[in-house]
Amino acid sequence: MNKHRNKYRRFSIAEMVLLGFAAPVLMGGGFVHAWLKNSQVEVVKEIRKTERRITDHGSSINSLQAKIDRKLNIYQIRDDLTRAGSELIEVPARLVEIIPPHGSRIASEMHKAPSLARVQP
Q1: CA–CA separation, 41 vs 52, rounded Å?
Q2: Cα 90 from chain centroid?
Q3: Could you read off the pLDDT tens digit of each residue along the chain, which spans 121 residues?
């Protein structure tokens, strides 16, 4: 008896409605999953490209810093000036005169003016 009852099984209305709602939801979930994975891969590519640019800039900064250090080496400067036949001579520090900039009169007047923190009410 049970054998004949299960032989011609049909879906009920509730099962068909549930299948009608579940199929688009699952398909939409699959599309969203694929879209998110694709955007994640693109973000990883951008991060790698940025990291590569950072390391490239870091190495160029290091080489530029080495060039600057070579140019600012006082012994190298002296040798270059000697080879160039420059008439520049070394001046002792005690003979160097400090000359204030053009707007120093205004700056000196500002220093003479009392500070607001020192003025009594």
Answers
A1: 17
A2: 44
A3: 566 665 667 888 999 999 999 999 999 999 999 999 999 999 999 999 999 999 999 999 999 999 999 888 888 888 888 899 988 888 888 888 888 887 656 555 555 555 555 544 4
